[in-house]
Amino acid sequence: MTVHTPSLLEKAALVLGAFQGATPRLTLTEVVRRSGLSRSSVHRILDQLVRLGWLDRDGRDYRLGMRLLELGAMAAHHNRLRRAALPHLHALHERTGHVVHLAVLDGPEVVYLERLGGTADASVPSRIGGRQPAYCTGTGKAILAFSEETLVAEVLRAGLRPRTPYTLVRPRSFRAELARVRERGVAFDREEAFRGVACVAAPLRGAGRAVAAVSVCGNGIHRELERLAPAVRGTARAVWAELYGPGRAAPRRTAECAAAPALEPAQLDTMMSWLRFAEWM
């Protein structure tokens, strides 16, 4: 019988899992007892987590660090976004018959929080939790067009590498494309990320920056993009109204993070689930 030896990542998850409970502070001995790991392993992992900001140390006690609480706040926000969007995404998928995405921006990449589509849509290579470069995707361009200049500059610094012959790789052309997105209210991806796959996306926003984007994608739907655009825009507006009400601006990220220390136990459970989910992203 083969005995499974936990990996370093699994050991770190056990250490963090020890903090799931009513006691916010734990000693080294308490973490050892709750995790079931050796004292030397726990001591080494605790030191690394403190250096990374995932845990804080106060004398002999350890507690969840600000970095971990910030991630928990963002996870709770993303879960709320997905719950609010899901009925509207299903309606959009039924109306169009194509793959529907809900995505957020993470640095120079988009992360898919939701993907709706059947086995017939396997030609669109995306998955929940998957990532794609923002510059060549409809959702990425829809968010970037209504984002701060620092985010656009970060994408340009990361480089506009050609994914297909149709990918925009010149910064001036890319900025001009973002200007067109602001004028139209939708972004198009015409085989810029994958050959044969086209998308139309709309940002989730009020009067300010975009917090996410909704898209419809399919293989060979290039001629349908303009026809699909109003439905995608309407879905984005409906999701926004569900979240914040019509005409309201999104709360700033700094405000979300400032509220992080007040997370309830249920939100901490959500946070830990997100961290497990993030291991394979």
Automatic annotation (TrEMBL):
It comes from the Bacteria. SUPFAM superfamilies: GAF domain-like (SSF55781), Winged helix' DNA-binding domain (SSF46785). Residues 67-245 form the IclR-ED domain. Keywords: DNA-binding, Transcription, Transcription regulation. InterPro entries: GAF-like_dom_sf, HTH_MetabolicPath_Reg, Tscrpt_reg_IclR_C, Tscrpt_reg_IclR_N, WH-like_DNA-bd_sf, WH_DNA-bd_sf. Pfam families: HTH_IclR (PF09339), IclR_C (PF01614). Residues 6-66 form the HTH iclR-type domain. The keyword DNA-binding applies. PANTHER family: HELIX-TURN-HELIX TRANSCRIPTIONAL REGULATOR, ICLR FAMILY, HTH-TYPE TRANSCRIPTIONAL REPRESSOR ALLR. This is IclR family transcriptional regulator.
